[in-house]
Amino acid sequence: MIFVEYLILVYFLYVVGYTASCSLAGMIRSFKSPLTEDWDLHKIAILVPAYKEDAVILSATARNLMVNYPKEFFELFVIADSLKEESLEALRKMPISLIEVDFEKSTKVKSLNFALQKIERDFDIALILDADNVMKEDFLQKINACYAAGFKAIQGRRTAKNKNTDFAVLDGLSEMINNHIYRDGNCGMGWSSSLIGSGMAFEFELLKERLSTMTSVGGFDRELEVLLVEKGHKVVYVPDAWVYDEKVEKAEVFAGQRKRWIASQYHYLAKFWGLGMKALFTGKLALFNSTILRNIQLPRVINLGLLGLIALTYSLLSSWLSLSPLIWWSLLAVLILSFVPSVPLSYYNKDFFKSLAKLPQAFGIMFSLLFKLKGANKKFIHTPHGQNSSE
Description:
- This protein is of the alpha/beta class.
- About 50% of the residues lie in helices and about 15% in strands.
- Strands 3-2-1-4-7-6-8-5 form an eight-stranded mixed β-sheet, sandwiched between helices.
């Protein structure tokens, strides 16, 4: 029993230590896109895979065409997979390029690879957006500035577009914490920012070459990050380059999305374990972080819930257990404090505190998913967006 207690303690010392260190590094790091009038303008291909995204694709596309960047220097490509005919007709009337695809088994990687092979015009930068994403007006300017400064892999700041339900508020909060710890914090530690799957830009030919080697079903961003870092290309996180992202509104959609994320996390942990261990022993800490350090942890909500339950259990059963309850309460306090710098003061309102009541439900959903992951990374799990997201 003592061995098990100390094993659990070692795990949580690692989790809390990693989170606190990255949170502190994220507070110290100060990076903004190096905007200057001297930068040359580069041609940007905006790639938008859209699988059954009729509810959001038209409005998001219209808004993304309004960015503050010369029209002749960017082109928006909607990669339409299983869209309704009326959506396709409306898209054909817009000043975009429509690429229609039809796969027996759809994945984002297949859509992107098809589009990258089909595009004939020369582009410097490839930018990937989700169908619901809306760029802030100056987003392309800031991506261009970072590319001009020599960065070949760039992750923008994804932030919540909606706060209309408790789960949407929690999802937005999760994104903030991820941005601070796994992107700002990882860069502050000298590692690579984690990729999110959208709001990310790359040198066009670099993305085309790396993506052509991939057949990912879920979590392609995790594999892409590893393949980039392996070749010496760290991803830079740009916190002042904003993309608005629709957050999940309902528990059932939350469960489906998180199931896909958790399954891909452990799939790539296993796939790249050998590469990660080799990176550790050869001093390539950025690669070790992208393959193992970040992925070996349980999801954050589960860590938070388990640590709280352990602290409470030790308080109630301290006479029968070896370690002091103070250890667990201290670890829980440090973990919670590590999240605080992620959240701006404006977010602390009644909706925020109301949404916290959903944390036990979120923990229950996430914990149960750990036992339902078999085969989840072998099929494409779509996260619906828009008003009909529950259908």
